[in-house]
Write a structure and sequence with these properties.
187 residues; alpha+beta; ten-stranded antiparallel β-sheet; 3 helices; 32% strand
Length: 187
């Protein structure tokens, strides 16, 4: 017959055993977390110092230093990268910028709509740029970025160009509406 003390020890042993089994199955790296959300692990470079991830999908990654990695285009990673992970997507992203036509654009969102398409989309606010999903299969080496002022200036230029294009389109549409309205009054 089991004594109360032996029974209590047995219950405690079972509880601790199941806790350790669950924690062993938890992701151990940010790359595992990306993979569990059906995202390629190469979205982040080699050299992640540490990271946090909560049950709401919010994450923060810390690198040793800001750096650049070359893909089809060049990507810049700040020392701290954060966002919210959902299945096949990173939203509310900060800390990653993409270069296109000598301008740097802050990446706001990354998503894989249909994995079988082989495409991944980087949303920079005004447009989305598509890349080959295979480019991000493995984490890239990241070279130290000693150009923070140039990068910042490039982002400001990109944001200014984006807002000017928006204003130009708005003015053009307004002008067309005025012309159409003026023509309708004459008829």
């Amino acid at each position: 017959m089991m004594t109360p003390q032996l029974f209590l020890n047995f219950i405690l042993f079972c509880l601790f055993s199941s806790h350790f089994q669950v924690s062993n199955s938890d992701p151990v790296s940010i790359y595992d977390v990306l993979r569990s959300h059906d995202l390629p692990i190469g979205l982040l470079p080699k050299g992640v110092k540490d990271f946090t991830y909560d049950e709401n999908g919010k994450f923060e990654v810390h690198l040793e230093e800001a750096c650049n990695a070359k893909f089809e285009n060049e990507l810049h990673y700040d020392r701290n990268i954060s966002g919210t992970l959902t299945y096949g997507q990173i939203g509310g992203l900060s800390g990653i910028s993409a270069q296109d036509l000598f301008l740097w654009f802050p990446v706001k969102e990354i998503r894989v709509d249909i994995p079988s398409s082989g495409l991944i989309y980087f949303d920079v606010g005004v447009v989305s740029k598509q890349f080959s999903l295979s480019s991000f299969e493995t984490p890239r080496d990241c070279l130290a970025a000693n150009l923070p002022d140039l990068l910042h200036d490039g982002m400001l230029i990109a944001q200014t160009v984006s807002s000017k294009v928006f204003i130009l389109i708005s003015l053009s549409l307004s002008f067309l509406l005025i012309l159409n309205f003026g023509c309708l009054e004459k008829i």
